[in-house]
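Ticket #4471: structure export looks truncated?
Reporter: QA, pipeline team
Priority: medium

Steps to reproduce: submit the single chain below to the structure queue and open the exported record.
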Amino acid sequence: MPRMRLLVIATSIALAACSQPHSSDAAKKAPAPTSTAPAKAASVAAPVADATASNPFFTASTLPFQAPPFDKIKDSDYQPAIDEGMKRQLAEVDKIANNPAPPTFENTYVALQKTGVLLNRVMAVFNGVTGANTDPTLQKVQEEEAPRLAAHQDAIYLNDKLFARIQKVYDERDSLKLDPESQRLLVVVHRNFVMAGAKLSDADKAKLKKLNQEDSTLSTQFTNKLLAATKDGALVIDDKAQLAGLSNAEIDAAAQAAKARGLTGKWVLPLQNTTQQPLLRDLDDRATRKALFEASWNRAEKGGPDDTRDTIEKLAKVRAEEAKLLGFPNYAAWKLQDQMAKNPATVMKFMAKLTPAAVARAKAEAAEIQKQIDKDQAKLHKPTFKLQPWDWEHYAEQVRKAKYDLDENQLKPYFELDNVLKNGVFYAAHELYGLTFKERKDIPVYQPDVRVFEVYDKDGKPLALFYCDYFKRDNKGGGAWMDNFVYQSKLLGTKPVIYNVANFTKPAPGQPALLSMDDVITMFHEFGHALNGMFADEEYQTLSGTNTARDFVEFPSQFNEHWATNPKVFAHYAVNYKTGKPMPKALVEKMRKAGMFNKGYDMTELVSAALLDMNWHMLPASAPKQDADKFEEASLKKDGVYLSYVPPRYRSSYFQHIWGNGYAAGYYAYLWTEMLADDAYADFKAHGGLTRANGQRFRDMILSRGNTEDLAKMYKDWRGKAPSIEPMLIDRGLKDAPKK
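Actual output as written to the record:
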């Protein structure tokens, strides 16, 4: 998923990192809120005069594509650069606001796009490193800078003189004869100012600034607490027998994880960001499964320093108060006004089309799994037991094996990470768009596991840099995401430097990194975001690449998932890492038939999380502070998705997307964009599938367009019609496929 990020001054806080519903979801750490009000000097900032000479952020990088010079960047460089960046941007903004010349598009809107170069440069790197390779020093900087950045943003959006110029040009928009992209910039920037409270009274602006800083502080505190909670919640195993069912590679990885924590002679099972944990599928010992599930479910609810409940309860209340001040009944109503869905009613109506079928299918799957439990227990001459959430993945796998004679461990030897990347992800990009990739080992990275590739366009010209950071670390946020170290803009003369982050299990030394099919889908998903960023071809950074609505930005990534199972692409990468032989046709067919298996569970846990998000953010300001646990249960029951054996994909207490990553009132976007992606893939199939012509048209009309026009119109112009939900219902197993 794309992460929220600081964009060129007061334009928008755009998205740019992704959470993947089919895998370890998005997660990314919460970027320090971008902001704009007088920033106080940071406590550890060095004098600017000294910093300018040695701080690598104070000048543009001389590396290809202005890539970050990680070999020169120190933790102590970030805060002075952030503070100086805010100072410089405010001076640039004040100059625009106080310009004696009449306001024009060029001296106001374009001038704003040119501000904040230093701040954007350091924040792009800071957000990336704090998400994927943080440490206590950086976390302290995050917490100190969060309210200052929020205030900085307010100082721009709530600047009366500046908004008067913005409004004057906006009022004259019909007579300006601007090109289409400039017209779009004018509309988007003006809307962002209004959404941020530019039309409020001075008294209400003061209240909003205080609430914004409180929101920012709480969000950052939540992120840092959750990172600690996830690390501390890892399950420590004393007896190897408790790991029965895991592969030797998985047991070795658990031993390595323990060794890294100084727990010699033990095994550690680190937590993923989602409720369910991948290893639950293979663990034979029910007590171990229960312990692992409960470690995940209770990770942030210990009543100690990692407890996030009070933080999110306060955050929900603050957001409701922000919305009321801005004239909206709730935060969701405020947040959705610039999305494709437009309002909460549309979102809830959309999800109502999915919920009954998803829940009914999950219940049917549960009945089938219960039969498998009864059967297995009878064979062992043991009493049966009622299906619990820590049993689902394990016994669902038994049902899968029985119905389709398919064991997930049969598949993993065919999904070696490097081969999937080069002969799957990169291959599909070549076939569709003509891209080629060359690994660059001369570009410095922020952690040894990170790899860098230079990307060349179909004409052989350099297009972008692509970093990939795939392995789980304790100091990395959970999930998977994409973002930019450098953003594309013709105005600023910059090309994209993009990264993908995931949390795959790192193999023991000398062992191959073997992936599950879900992991493979995650790689294709995140690379779909990367393509959206690489193909960016905009004049203005505010409209560039993945800076689109939440319920559109996941469309390119979810669309790209389809190529993971496209027969031609799949055959190109699904080869046994030992023998080099392709996956046997019989095994491929088993996998295909099993593709609809467990879809009721998958969709129900996703719908549950999306509804939970909406319910938190549809609270009015008049509502009292909630009890997180009671509110969660009541919400799920109200919406008809409370199933004891299908917990939501994220519990409120560890729902990083909505409390720290900009997906508040936006998690439904994964479902909405599944509709777009499945409908789009149906169009590709109808017109020849994996062809350069199809890819070029999609690139020209969608992937390279950013936010340069109304997104519903953009989609309709490409597709020839509005999106249909039918392909999604069929592809996700919620409707019988039409008989041939």
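Status: closed, not a bug. The export was complete when the record was re-opened. Leaving a note from the reviewer for reference: The chain is about 50% helix and 5% strand.
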